[in-house]
Amino acid sequence: MLLRSVFIKLGPDSRDGYVPLEAALTAFQTLAPLDQESLSVEEMLVRLKEGGLLDSEQQRFSFAEFIEAFGCLFKL
Question: What angle is formed at CA 16 by the lines to CA 10 and CA 17, rounded to 5 degrees?
Fold first, then answer.
């Protein structure tokens, strides 16, 4: 529920429901679980690429991708 609320606050594009990658990464930094290490934007990008959730051309996330990326970054 919290992730859905945050995603909506990021202002998804009304045409396709996607949010900018940069906004999503900033949100992930503020949502990081307290019992896990803080990640820089660069570290998040590497983890997402290694996890197969991000390619070099991708600049936006759908809600499903946002949830999957959060899980990948914080191993939930």
Answer: 30
* Contact between residue 19 and residue 65 where contact means Cβ atoms under 8 Å apart: no
76 CA to centre of own chain:
13
Which tokens in the block code for residue 24? 């999503």
Closest of 76, 64, 70 to residue 47, by C-alpha: 70
Residues 6+ apart with CB under 8 A from 73: 28, 32, 39, 44, 47, 48
Whole-model pTM: value is 0.89
- pLDDT, residue 76, reads 62
Domains and CATH numbers, the chain: 2-74 (1.10.238)
Maximum CA extent, the chain: 37
Residues 41 and 21 sit within 8 Å (Cβ to Cβ) = no
